[in-house]
Request: fold
Amino acid sequence: MEHYALFVLMSVLLIILPGPDTGVVTQNTVFHGRAGGMKTVLGSTSGLLIHTLAVVCGISAILVKSAFLFSVIKYVGAVYLLYLGLVSLWSLRNQETAAVDQPYAKHQSKSPFLQGFLTNVLNPKVAVFFLTFLPQFVKPGSYAFLQFFALGLTYTLLTVAWFFLYVQFIDRIRAWMKKASTQRAIQGITGLALVAFGITLALEKRP
Reply:
């Protein structure tokens, strides 16, 4: 591997940028506590491992080259993000805290792990990112498979570390965030953010 320290630095900067994962992790931590947040993180990072293996096996290259496959995964991922966002916004209709919790819990508490996993694995932009980002730090020659896997694993572990700290922070201020007014604000902001991410993904053009 070449310039490993630079890879780590760039990865950290990219990981801390808010994205769909951040929105889902925030909501699940607020409504389901630290355990819900960490389950979401594990699901999201499992998706990263899938993308890593896809790059190593050449599947990501096929995805990027195939307009049909890229579009299918893109629209499925976009619909899922829109679904998560709209469910959150829909619950704002009822201003009572208990009623706000119920519709969200009904649709979202079944599997935080699955939410994190699908949010990540159904995002073809992640596949494109891995396909274009990782090769820049692979040393030409033998053992390319191991280098790709090591870089992908490093990125995944850094993601786990960052979101672990993020979940701890959200959980610490959870009591304040569970206030009715704060809760509605969080639902509105994250709901709109997820809808925006879904629309952005749907409009994403194949590279």
In short: The mean pLDDT is 77. The radius of gyration is 18 Å.
